[in-house]
Structure formats: C-alpha cells, structure tokens
Design goal:
This protein is an alpha+beta fold and 414 residues long. The chain is built from 17 helices and eleven strands. The longest helix is centred in the middle third of the chain and has 31 residues.
Length: 414
C-alpha cells in the first residue's frame, strides 16, 4: 500500500489511467480528494462489503469529526452538508427513503415510459430540424442533457421557467474545478432557488412528488424545511446529471465500436438493454461518490488496512467497474458480456440509488429511439478530441458532436 495518497484530478483528464493507478495501489487505498484525504475502495468485493457494513455511515454531522472545519473550506461542502437521505444513517435514512421511494417504484417507472418516449421523440425531431438547418448537433446538449431534465421536472411538477433556472446550478454541483467561493455561492443559490420553488408549489400544488413531500412536511411534520429543500436538491441532481452521463456514455460506446453497434441494430430490444448495462459497468456515470465514514475502527487485515473511526471512505465506482478480478478484458466494450450487470454503478445496500430503474429506462428508450431515428449517425470529431466533464464525481463527456443523415420513424417505440 502506498503511503502517499493519490491526488485525484479535479478535471478528470485521464479517468481510465487514474482508475488503473488507483487499482494498482491496492483494493483500499488513500486518496486526496480536493484536499480531504479518504480511503478509496476500488475492488468490487470490498466495495460491496463496506457499503453494507453497519459501521459505515454517510452522516457527516454524527460521524465525521472534521465536519465543521471541512464545510468551511472544501469545495465539495454541499455533498456532506445536505440533510436528506443521501447523508442520513440508520433509522433516519429509512424514514426519509420511505417518503421518496414510492415515486420510483416499478409501477411508477413503467407508467413513466410513455412520457419518456414522448419527450425522446420531441427531442429527436428537434435534432433533425437543427441538422437540416446546417447547425452543429451535440448529442449531449441537444438530447442527453434535455431528456433527464424534462423527465425529472415532470415527476417534480416543475414549470418550464423554473427548469431553465435550475439547469446551470444543478450542473455545477458536480463541477470539481470550482474553487471554494464559487462552490459556496452556487450551493447557496441553488438551495435558495429550491426554497422559492417550495413556496411556489405550496401555492400551486399538483399530482407530483414535490407536492407529496410538502404534504409530508406540512401535515405530518416528518420533514424539516431544510430536509424538504435538500431532498428536492437530491432528487433533481441525482436524477439529472447521472442519467445524462449514462446516455452520453452509451452512445459514445456504440458509435465508437461498430461491431457492437451492429449487434444492437440486429436485435434492438434485447441488445440495447445489454449495451446500457455494459456501459454502466465500463463507464460508471458516477466515478467517485463522497463520502462515508467509519463509525468505529474497521480492520481489513488480509490487505493490511485499518480504517480508523471517523475516517472518510470514498466509493470508487468507475475503478470497480473495470476491475480485472471480476471482469475479463475489463477495458473492452462487449454487449455480449455475461456478467455486466454485476456492476455497482448505482451503489449497493441501503443507499442504492432509488432512481436506478428510471435512469435505465431513459437510457434504453433514448438509445433505441436514437439509433432507429438516425441509422447513419457518426461522431463528428476524432475520438481524441472528445473532452471529459471536469469532475472527480461525474464520468462523462462535455460534448458529443455527431453528424447524421437522420430520419424520424413513424410510431417510434421503446
């Protein structure tokens, strides 16, 4: 085990190389995350083990001794300072999860599929119109960015004007190139905006998750006002950025692997599902997720590691997805891989992402519909010209320009 922590690149200029270096240092090793040292867990077996360990908490206020000083200086302060199910522990976490869970259950997700398809078809029409006008088409900005945002805003009952105001500050939550001042300003502005949205929804309730949460807050007093706003922040940010990354990464993988793309084209129903799962394994939308903490010392003697009480733990999802102990030829993109779904890209255990089925549904519908609408799509630049999102957390591209002789098929269906 290396003594000197691996300093994670805030601009993610070489995600694959950095993950390879992380794995080479051991299954659980020290990293520097914008000035905060943590134990990064990159081996899937140890990651699963720690994610279900009752001695591991996400409650920074209760279990992180350096909480107060860290939130004053750390650009990622919002990730540990929010009060919602993301940072809750034990019974508090279970109670908060029960409030939000019904909005993302199987029945609700299935009911959302026609909505997702309608939004997808509208965005594809707009892309085709833009292309015919001779304008540059960017699959991220014109499609992958808009689809999850429209879906989550539909769930939350957010009018268009509010959607446009939310887009930039939500995106900046994942931007780890911001300094402390910019990150603090953005986080406070986002929470203030959501506070005003709560006031708006109290005056204009609807059949949506925001109204349900407000009723829980105002009726049963099961949420504080801070928890209400921070829960909305969690749903918007988690439902948006990670799904954007999944859609972008899936399309990039297919458009840069012609043989795999042909497999998907020959069997779009089943192979698209496989392509999304393989993308989740190979290119997890969330590379690193801060933070968890040891509530008491955790000994891992077989690898010579002892995590002391209060020390931060960092889940390294993208490194785990390419671990050679679990996946053969881990850097390859293979839609026929038999164990792709063994990935941990949505987490594991009590904090596993509630919105995972919805994100997968969006990615599958988006991919299937795009390939049907634009059968000749190709990436418009050389692969080395594609640049990553500047984020330790997000794992995606800042843009995915395409060129295509597309057509919108009649009755496009997922």
């Amino acid at each position: 085990m290396s003594i000197t922590p691996l300093v994670l690149d805030p601009k993610a200029r070489d995600r694959v190389g950095e993950d390879r270096e992380l794995r080479s240092r051991g299954h659980v090793t020290r990293v520097d995350l914008l000035g905060v040292e943590a134990w990064a867990v990159s081996h899937p077996d140890y990651l699963k083990r720690l994610l279900v360990d009752n001695r591991v908490s996400k409650d920074s206020r209760r279990h992180y001794p350096d909480f107060e000083q860290t939130v004053q200086r750390w650009p990622l302060w919002l990730w540990i300072a929010v009060e919602n199910m993301f940072t809750a522990y034990g019974t508090d976490h279970r109670a908060l999860r029960r409030l939000v869970g019904p909005a993302f259950n199987h029945r609700r997700t299935q009911a959302m599929r026609p909505v997702i398809q309608t939004i997808t078809d509208r965005l594809l029409e707009q892309m085709l119109t833009k292309q015919r006008a001779g304008d540059r088409v960017d699959l991220r900005a014109d499609f992958a960015h808009q689809l999850p945002m429209d879906v989550i805003h539909h769930l939350m009952g957010m009018p268009r004007a509010w959607q446009e105001a939310m887009a930039e500050p939500v995106g900046k939550v994942f931007d780890t190139s911001l300094d402390m001042a910019a990150a603090l300003q953005n986080g406070e502005a986002l929470k203030a905006l959501l506070g005003r949205f709560v006031k708006h929804k109290r005056e204009h309730p609807g059949d949506d998750l925001t109204t349900d949460l407000i009723r829980a807050r105002d009726g049963e007093m099961r949420l504080s006002e801070e928890q209400l706003v921070d829960t909305l922040l969690l749903v918007f940010s988690a439902g948006y950025e990670t799904t954007v990354g999944l859609i972008v990464n899936t399309h990039r993988n297919l458009l840069t692997h012609p043989r795999q793309l042909e497999i998907v084209r020959r069997n779009p129903e089943e192979a698209t599902v496989a392509a999304v799962q393989e993308t989740l394994r190979r290119d997890a939308s969330v590379a690193f997720l801060p933070l968890r903490y040891a509530t008491e010392p955790i000994d891992l003697p077989e690898i010579g590691v002892r995590i002391e009480q209060g020390e931060p733990i960092l889940a390294a999802y993208s490194a785990a997805g390419r671990h050679p102990d679990i996946f053969d030829q881990p850097d390859a993109f293979d839609v026929l891989r038999s164990n792709a779904s063994a990935h941990l890209s949505f987490g594991h255990g009590a904090h596993m992402c509630l919105g995972a089925p919805l994100a997968v549904a969006e990615a599958e519908i988006a991919t299937r519909s795009f390939l049907k609408a634009f059968p000749d799509a190709v990436i418009a630049v050389e692969e080395e010209q594609l640049t990553p999102v500047e984020s330790i957390i997000s794992n995606s591209l800042s843009a995915l320009p395409i060129t295509t002789s597309g057509r919108i098929p009649s009755g496009a269906a997922a």
